Amino acid sequence: MIVRPGAAVIPAPARLGPEDELGAEGYRLEVRDGRARVDAETDAGRFYAERTLSRLSADGPAPDVAIADRPRFAWRGFMLDVARHFFGVADVCRLIDRLADYKLNVLHLHLSDDQGWRIAIDAWPRLAEHGGSGAASGGAGGCYSQDDLRAIVRYAAERHVTVVPEIDTPGHVQAALASYPELGAPGSSSALYGGVEVGFSSLDVHAELTYRFLDDVFGELAALAPGEFLHVGGDEAHSTSRADYRAFVERVRPLVAARGKRLAGWEEIASAPLPGGAVVQLWNTAGGEGAELARAAVEQGAQLVMSPADRVYLDMKYDAGTPLGQDWAGHVEVRDSYDWDPAKLVAGVPEEAIAGVEAPLWTETIATMQELETMVFPRLCAVAEVAWTPQARRNWGDFRARLAGEGVLWDAAGMAYHRSPQVDWR
Ligand code: TNX
C-alpha cells in the first residue's frame, strides 16, 4: 500500500502484525478505491481509525492503505495551566479538538495556583469570587462554574479525552489563602498575588481545617470529573518542611481514596509513602533529583508520567528569539521534543513502569489563544508521536516531512504555530 508523502498521519501508525491484539485503543483501517473498512474492539479504537482516515483524506480522496495501529502508552496527555492565565470553555474545547486530532487522551487541567483559583466550589464560594479574580502579570481573572467544567468534561469525553483535574497542594495556594486566610500556615499573607515566583505559600498542614477544606474540594471535583485520577500537585512546596510534607501527603491519601480516585502528583510526592495505583509525574529529570524520585516512585509500585521539562515543557522558548515563555530548562525546539525515548529517560525505570507522556503548558507568560497555539504547535505533535508510536518506528526525517503537511492544515484553519526552521514548511 502506498501513502502519499504529504498525506501521512501524525502520530505515525504502529504497524501491527496480523496476530497482534488491538487492545483498548487500537484499530485496523483498510481503504481501497475510496472505500474504508474499520476493525476495532472499542469506541476509542473506532474513533482513532476515523481520525486517521480524516487526515488521510484531508486534501482529497484517501489513498489505498492498510493500517493496523495501537498506542505505545495509555497516558498521552497535555496539561493546561489555567491558573496563571485563564482560558475559557470555548478555548479549551478548541484545544480538545486538536488533542483528538493527534490521538492524545488526557487533558490535565491545572486548576489552582498562587495566581488564581479556577473552579467554583459550592462549599467555599470565595475561592471563585475572590481567588479567581486575578491572574499573573495583571491579567484578567476568570473561573469555571461547575457547569463549565461539566461541559469541558463532556466535550472531552466525546473525543475520548479524560480530564484530570489538579488542585495544587500544599504549596502554590496563595489564591486560596487570599480567599480564606484561616487556611494558611502561620504568618501567611492574605493578599492576592500576580507575580510569577513559586514556592512561598503553604496550607497549614497541622490544621484540621485544611483537611476539611480539601475533603470538600476533592468531593466536588470528583463528582464533576468522572475520570480515575485526582491530581494533588505537590510540587515546589519550598515553604513546607520535609517532615510536614510527608505528614501532609499521608493525610491527603485517604481523602482521595475516599472519593474513589487514584492519586496523581508531581514527582516530589514520591518522597512520601504512596498509595496503591498512584501516578507520579516527572518533570525535573535534567536536574538529577527527578531521577531519584522516579526510582523511589517505581520502588513503591507507582507508575510514571514523563514530562521532562527539557523535552516537553511547552512554555520553554524554542530559541533565543522566542518572545514568549521561559528558559530555565533550556531552549526546546521541535526536534528536542521528538528525539527522546521515555524508556531511556531514567536509568532503572523500564517501559512497564511508564504510564505515558504528558506535555505541560505553564502560562505565566501566555495570555491569549494565539500565544498558546504558538507555543503548543508543532511541539505537541512531536509529543503525541512519542506517546503513540513505538520507538523503532519513529524517525525524525520522516516526522518533519509529515509535519509540513500539518502546517498546511493549520494555515487553512487560521491557527497560530511556530514556523520552526527545522521543518520545510510549504
Ligand atoms: C515549574 S513544573 C513549576 C510551575 C511553573 C513552571 C514554569 C512544576 C511542577 N512546577 O509552577 O509554572 O516551572 O516552567
Structure commentary:
This protein has 13 helices and 13 strands. With 426 residues, it is α/β, with parallel strands linked by helices. The strands form 3 sheets. Strands 4-5-8-9-10-11-12-13 form an 8-stranded parallel beta barrel, surrounded by 6 helices. Strands 2-1-3 form a 3-stranded antiparallel beta sheet, covered by helices on one side. It is globular and about 70 Å long. The N terminus is likely disordered. Bound molecules: ligand TNX. Ligand TNX binds next to loops.
The major sheet is characterized as: 8 strands, parallel, barrel
Taken from the alpha-carbon principal axes, the silhouette is globular
Order of helices and strands: EEHEEHEEEHHEHHEHEEHEHHEHHH
Bound molecules: ligand TNX
The proportion of strand residues reads: 15-25%
Radius of gyration: 21 Å
Note the gap between the termini. Answer: 25 Å
**Number of contiguous helices:** 13
- Care to count the β-strands? 13
Low-confidence stretches: 1-6
Share of residues in helices: 25-40%
Look at the helices and sheets and give the structural class: alpha/beta
Major sheet: order of its strands?
4-5-8-9-10-11-12-13
Mean pLDDT reading: 96
How do the strands and helices of this protein lay out in sequence?
Elements: E1 27-32, E2 35-39, H1 43-56, E3 65-69, E4 75-81, H2 89-101, E5 106-110, E6 112-113, E7 116-117, H3 126-129, H4 146-157, E8 162-169, H5 174-179, H6 208-224, E9 229-233, H7 242-258, E10 262-266, E11 279-282, H8 289-299, E12 303-306, H9 309-312, H10 334-338, E13 354-361, H11 369-376, H12 379-388, H13 396-413
Parallel strand pairs: 4-5, 4-13, 5-8, 8-9, 9-10, 10-11, 11-12, 12-13
Antiparallel strand pairs: 1-2, 1-3, 6-7
Helix pairs in contact: 2-4, 6-7
